[in-house]
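User: I'm putting together notes for a lab meeting next week and I want to include a structural view of one of the chains we've been expressing. I don't have a solved structure, so I'd like a prediction I can at least talk through. The sequence is below, exactly as it appears in our construct file.
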Amino acid sequence: MKKIEVRCELVENNNSKELFIYGPVLDNKSYWYDEGEYICPQNIIDLLKDVNVEDDLTIRINSYGGSVFAGIAIYNLLKSHKGTVNTMVDGIAASAASIIAMAGDKILMAKNSMMMIHNAWCFTSGNAKELRKVADDLDKIGDSLVETYMDKFVGTVDELKTLLDDESYLTANECIDLGLATEIVDNSSKDDDAQAKQNKVSILAKYRERAKLNEADKNEGEKIEECQSFIFNKFGGNR
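Assistant: Thanks for the context. Below is the predicted structure for the 239-residue chain, given as C-alpha cells.
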C-alpha cells in the first residue's frame, strides 16, 4: 500500500475545529519510523491544549493504523473531551485507526471511504512457553477491542468476532448497516452533479456525431463498391 503522508494538526474551518489524523498511529517510541513520521498519543494531547473543553471537534482520519495501544489511548483522549466529537473517515480507517473512529458521537464516512477491522497481531520470538503467553495476551487485547467496537456495533459479539477473524474491509454502506458509522457524506454538490451531467452529454454528443460520420463514410464506401462492381460486370476489366 502507498504510504500516507503524515498530517497531525488542528485547523479552524468555518468557526469549527478539525483535527487531522493522517498517517501511521504508533507509540511515543518506534523502532521502524523516525520522529515526525507517525502520530502518537502525545501529539493529540498537545493539540487538544488549544481546544476549549466544551468546543465541538471533528477528527478527520486517513490511516492504515499501527499500534493498538496508541489507538486505544487516542480513542480515550477523544472520548474524555467534554464537547461534541465527530469522527470523519476521509479515506481509510484501518486497524488502530478504526478504533479512533469509534470515539465519535457521530461517525461520518465519505461515500467512497473504507474501514478495516481485524484481530490484534504482533511480531514475536521465544520458546513455547513464551509464545503461548503472547497468544494469551493477544486474546486479552482482542477482548478490549471487541468491547470498544460493541459500543457501536449492532450485531452480536460472535458476529463481530467473525468480522475481526476475517480481517474485514468494509465500505461506508456496510459500516452504516453494522453500526460502525452513522452517516455517509457526499462531497459532490448539485452544481458539480449538473456540470458532470453536462460534460457527459457533451461527450456523448461528440461520439454520436462521430458515429454518424463513420456510418456515412461506410455507406459512401458501399456505394462506390457497388458502382465499381456494376462497371466491372457491364464492361469487364480490372477493378
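A couple of points you could mention at the meeting. The beta strands are 7-13, 16-22, 57-63, 85-94, 106-110, 114-117, 168-171, 183-185. The first strand starts at residue 7 and ends at 13.

User: Perfect, that's what I needed.
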